[in-house]
Design a protein that fits this description.
Length: about 250
């Protein structure tokens, strides 16, 4: 058996939606969550810049003893995971991706896929979409939405959604949340679109993490420990993260 810490990183606190599901299935491990809010959002950055940012964070998490690293950001996953797996062959990377297959499996769903521009422009997203797309799928690149959620401005979030997704009201009955920030605003999305069904990748990531832990005989501690690190050293961000972890 091998002891390991489990690293998480995202462009901010949105990955807390993934972390919560993972802790449910894999408690009693030491988690290190790296919130890179100083570089938020990733979605409007170049591929080269996102690769540079992700590599620096991964180096830090490895130095802290993480043999498993969860990329809790759809943009970073789409752009970086293949490179990171090749460059760090001894580290296990778990990458989140938009839950397009879940929507595909529900044949009656008319589905809106919401994601960042960086995710939608990536080859990984195009491959996934082309494999599972149906004629009743709608794509929406939500430029700037993750940043609004990161800063928690509810009025601006509501106005953004009214302006950008109101056209899909009555057209869709489900939504793929292709950014880990987006599950934090399910209520606001429903206020615009009605009682839609949501799909996101967090459940799939948690199941994959549990499978990897069991198959590799990784062991943790006697209790769950979560270390939160924010690249901008924003204490208010840490308070909000802990509140979302407890109450999301």
């Amino acid at each position: 058996m091998k002891r390991t810490k489990i690293g998480f990183f995202d462009s901010g606190i949105g990955g807390v939606t993934v972390l919560r599901e993972c802790v449910k299935l894999a408690p009693n491990f030491e988690y290190i969550y790296y919130s890179d809010s100083i570089n938020n959002p990733y979605g409007d950055k170049s591929k080269e810049k996102v690769l540079e940012i992700a590599s620096n964070i991964v180096e830090y998490l490895i130095s802290e003893g993480c043999y498993i690293i969860v990329i809790a950001c759809n943009t970073a996953s789409a752009i970086c995971v293949e490179y990171l797996r090749n460059y760090y062959p001894n580290i296990i990377f778990i990458a989140i991706e938009p839950a397009i297959k879940c929507a595909y499996d529900n044949l009656e769903d008319n589905t809106l896929i919401m994601a960042t521009k960086g995710t939608m422009d990536s080859e990984r997203f195009h491959n996934l979409y082309n494999k599972y797309h149906r004629n009743n799928f709608y794509l929406k690149s939500c430029i700037g939405l993750a940043n609004l959620i990161e800063h928690g401005n509810s009025n601006k979030i509501k106005e953004y959604l009214k302006q950008n997704i109101n056209e899909y009201k009555g057209k869709v009955n489900s939504v793929v949340l292709g950014c880990t920030h987006y599950p934090l605003i399910k209520k606001e999305i429903k206020d615009v679109l009605g009682n839609v069904t949501f799909y996101d990748g967090s459940i799939g990531v948690s199941k994959q993490l549990k499978k990897i832990i069991d198959s590799n005989n990784f062991i943790g501690n006697n209790k769950t420990q979560i270390l939160f690190i924010d690249s901008s050293n924003d204490k208010l961000k840490e308070e909000r993260f802990k509140n979302l972890l407890d109450n999301y």
